[in-house]
Design a protein that fits this description.
Blueprint: E1 3-8, H1 18-24, E2 30-36, H2 48-67, E3 72-76, H3 79-90, E4 92-98, H4 103-119, E5 122-126, H5 148-157, H6 202-207, H7 212-223, H8 230-233, H9 246-250, H10 256-266, H11 273-294, H12 317-324, H13 331-343, H14 348-361, H15 366-376, H16 384-393, H17 408-415, H18 420-425, H19 457-472
Parallel strand pairs: 1-2, 1-4, 2-3, 4-5
Helix pairs in contact: 3-4, 5-11, 13-14, 15-16
Length: about 475
């Protein structure tokens, strides 16, 4: 009897998983496999925070599969070779997966599909992780969009994203290997994805529940209230005003189709404007993936190539560590960087301020920040992380103009007026009043141990604008 392999990647869920659903509909044995691929050319190894998340997500997925009569097989190595070996072990006649959009991943998938055809194995891919696949959204001339607003307008003018499929109640038993027993896999612990000596993950564990159940709980909590005030709440770091679905979407623990249609069900007639704003954030995620699809080197090359000549400065080790550890002397930047280190996540408004401070006030190359976020964010993915850093730096598509320099003091006064977010992550500021908490250098005796500002805001702003002007002048 021919068997089916379902190859999971960034789609660690049972709900609305087209590849898994197609296999479950067949009477044949199904082998569900995840391959930790750190060997194929071009594959970027996961950062430390993402490795922590992956461990717990795979653990949760394995338990869900076992509850439905299946199991999750874990293998490690170059994906193409691992799939070929597994197909030979199980006598697979079909291979299903959900599509990926980065160039190295697409090259691997294309190679596996070509190999499968030569072996007489049916290889089928499905749309699962983007509402609008990159090649389906095109300008009138047939090219990719470079500006978000017309991109999203075109998406919304097209067909409604498909309805999500419910998870299978039961899955066929895994295929027997050549030994007559299910093929052997790795123990998850043997991958050593979790931090050791020291274990810095306590804050992540307190903040998150990786896995499909955690993803759906996040969505339900968001729909129960914050979504209806999202337009305002998303800008306030001191309140729970965002969905916090980003890491769940990054690992595919929840489908964007499920999120989209849950909003439809919650607001069947007249959705508040805030819902449209949230949908546009889903759209920005789609736009970033189109950018990566068209520009495979998005994490290493300026989208706007004129920035190749920008006079970035190399910060000293002490200066870079001050930014990374939240010791710049500017409370909003420091609160954000400490939130990142403690929880693996940072509020988006604060991300923009912290990133702007690095690339404009410190004049550091945006790639320095992108690499740090890649290592410390639980939601860092190959498209959104570099696209958003380039947006802040001014070197990206539809980018914030370089001369738009976030003032961290103005930003915190506007969006955290009472200082609750600042005090929550920078306890040295606990005794400052609501006015001084934004500018602690005005009363340094009340904030012992808190550093002086790393750079002057006005002087560093002028330096950044002068550097940008030299770029414009060639």
């Amino acid at each position: 009897m021919a068997s089916t392999i379902v190859w999971l990647r960034d789609d660690l869920r049972l709900d609305d998983n087209p590849a898994l659903a197609a296999a479950a509909a067949l009477p044949d044995p199904v082998t569900v496999v995840y391959i930790l691929d750190e060997h194929s050319p071009g594959i970027r190894p996961l950062g430390a925070a993402a490795r922590w998340w992956l461990h717990h997500s795979l653990s949760a997925l394995g338990a869900s599969l076992e509850a439905r009569g299946s199991r999750l097989l874990l293998r490690r190595g170059a994906a193409a070779s691992a799939i070929e070996e597994l197909a030979a072990e199980t006598g697979a006649g079909r291979l299903f997966w959900n599509r990926r959009y980065g160039q190295p991943e697409r090259s691997i998938d294309a190679g596996v599909k070509e190999w499968a055809a030569g072996q007489g194995i049916e290889a089928t891919s499905f749309q699962a992780n983007l509402l609008f696949e990159p090649w389906t959204v095109r300008t009138g001339s047939g090219g990719p969009y470079k500006v978000f607003t017309p991109f999203w307008r075109t998406c919304l003018a097209g067909a409604e994203p498909r309805l999500p499929a419910d998870p299978p109640d039961h899955l066929p038993q895994p295929a027997a290997g050549t030994s007559g027993r299910p093929p052997a896999g790795d123990r998850l612990d043997s991958w050593r994805l979790l931090p050791r000596r020291p274990d810095w993950s306590g804050g992540l564990a307190a903040a998150w529940t990786p896995g499909e159940d955690g993803a759906h709980e996040r969505l339900e909590d968001f729909l129960d209230g914050p979504v209806e005030d999202y337009g305002k709440g998303r800008d306030l770091p001191g309140v729970e005003g965002t969905s916090r679905l980003s890491p769940h979407l990054r690992f595919g623990e929840i489908s964007p189709f499920r999120v989209w249609h849950s909003l439809r069900e919650q607001f069947p007639r007249h959705a508040p404007a805030d819902v449209g704003i949230f949908r546009s954030e889903l759209g920005w995620r789609e736009f970033c993936w189109q950018l990566l699809y068209e520009n495979p080197d998005l994490a290493t090359q300026n989208y706007r190539r004129e920035f190749d000549h920008f006079a970035w400065q190399t910060p000293s080790d002490a200066e870079l560590e001050a930014w990374q550890q939240g010791r710049t002397g500017y409370p909003l930047v420091d609160a954000g960087m400490r939130q990142l280190w403690q929880t693996g996540w940072m509020h988006n408004r604060v991300r923009m301020a912290a990133a702007s401070f690095l690339v404009k006030n410190m004049l550091a190359d945006w790639r320095v920040g992108e690499a740090w976020f890649w290592d410390t964010l639980v939601d860092a993915d190959a498209a959104n992380n570099p696209a958003n850093w380039q947006w802040v730096a001014g070197s990206g598509a539809d980018a914030s103009p370089y001369f738009r320099i976030f003032n961290p003091v103005t930003q915190s006064k506007k969006f955290d007026a009472g200082g609750s977010y600042l005090r929550g992550y920078v306890p040295e500021l606990a005794d400052l009043d609501d006015r001084t908490v934004h500018e602690p250098w005005k009363n340094p005796s009340a904030a012992p141990g808190y550093p002086e500002p790393l750079v002057g805001l006005q002087e560093s702003r002028e330096r950044a604008l002068e550097t940008y002007q030299r770029l414009k002048e060639g």
